[in-house]
Amino acid sequence: EYNFCHVLCFSSLVLSADSAQGWYAQKLLNDLMENYSSALRPVEDTDKALNVTLQITLSQIKDMDERNQVLIAYLWIRQTWHDAYLKWDKEEYDGLEVIRIPSSLVWRPDIVLYNKADDDFSGPVDTNVVLRYNGEITWDAPAITKSSCVVDVAYFPFDSQQCNLTFGSWTYNGNQVDITMAMDSGDLSDFVENVEWECHGMPATKSVIMYGCCSDPYPDITYTVLLQRRSSFYIFNLLLPCFLISFLAPLGFYLPADSGEKVSLGVTVLLALTVFQLMVAESMPPSESVPLIGKYYIATMTMITASTALTIFIMNIHFCGAEAKPVPHWAKVLIIDYMSKIFFVYEVGENCASGQSQDDHHGHKHNQLHPHQAKHQHQTQKHQPKSNVKGPLGPGDQKDTGHARSHVQSEHNGVPSYLSHSNGCLKDPSKSYCPDEDKQDVALNFNHCMFCGRRGDHGIGLVSGADSELVRNVEYIASCFREQRANCAKGAEWKKVAKVMDRIFMWIFFVMVFLMSILIMGRAPSP
User: What is the pTM of this model?
Assistant: First the structure.
């Protein structure tokens, strides 16, 4: 019961003390505001300057608008000054040292952000001020500021920016209100990290400017916000896709010309890079400074345009037909013989170009007489008209036969080796030239077999006028096939030249893409 009484007595004393202190605070406020005016500068001597201490705390970077060159930041602004008319003796007010009153009741310095870029010209929030017994007033006010910032995007997305926040009095000169810095830099102890920007500091400098309109000095304090862009987002969303797409341009040279998609691939890659270029251009300010990523896009698009133009040129070479001129000798030596081995281009058009090997192969096959070919030759000889068949020649007929043979040989010098005559007919008449395997020789060998069928029973016959006309027809057919093979070989050579050039430019453009990426991205400044 005794302890309970002590507790009640202590509680009543505390309540009475609080009530007494509240009463003294009300009395103090009434006494201070009795003859006080918030419109005049609170100094006893008007010739003296009022010192205002400014401290800026950067809480958050809300946005950096590069296109409009505006920095949006959340700041805590602390201003401290002494009011000569707001002092009291704390002993007269029950030891009361500090009171908090609305800021609208006291005089406040008109310190504003000089480089403000907001349509709303309102100042900080009207929060309470902290008033001490010695006249010191501290005003802490939050503010969301929009300040103009000169954005340099030359090294985007590896750029760093320096945005200034300049504070000063709007109407008072330096002889009336002098601004001093509470710290050498802005306070970053409560800074909230931004997902796009890193803040590396906020140094402060004081400067005194003499304007042309007035002879009085105007001091101001400039806080420089040092920002470094976090480039990971742009690397994975803008640079890496461009780098991968640019490697598709050299692969267009590796695509076969007969596919018909070489030019389409180059145009598609060019359009894809154009889309990325437009995305970058929309976010950048329209200035003469081209961003680093923009230079990379332009260089890549130029390279792809050149590769597409070269692809069209090489496709014209690839599709050279029979009307084209033969491949020059220097091109055969340099490109077909030398460069093809360096770039590992083999067996292009060999089935058309290697006519000699195929002729040897056919000659080897023709040396063997198949049973159905011998039967066809026997039936042809059996059904020949009697007027065209000659019997065995006697000694007196050898002269005429030799004359006819020499006449035929003189008129048909261009007949192939397998149509040459021996002893009044074709050489080696026991061999047949009617193979079914080679389609190009069917017509020629058929006429050759027909010519062989005009021999006598003993394999020796005379060449009449009709036979001479037949030999000329056979020679014409043979020349047509020779010309066809020559055209095929010529086209194969041009195709090989085109493929070797494709392979050369493919490796050249691969090296260009790699070096271009290193040179351009190597210009990015180190953080």
Answer: 0.64
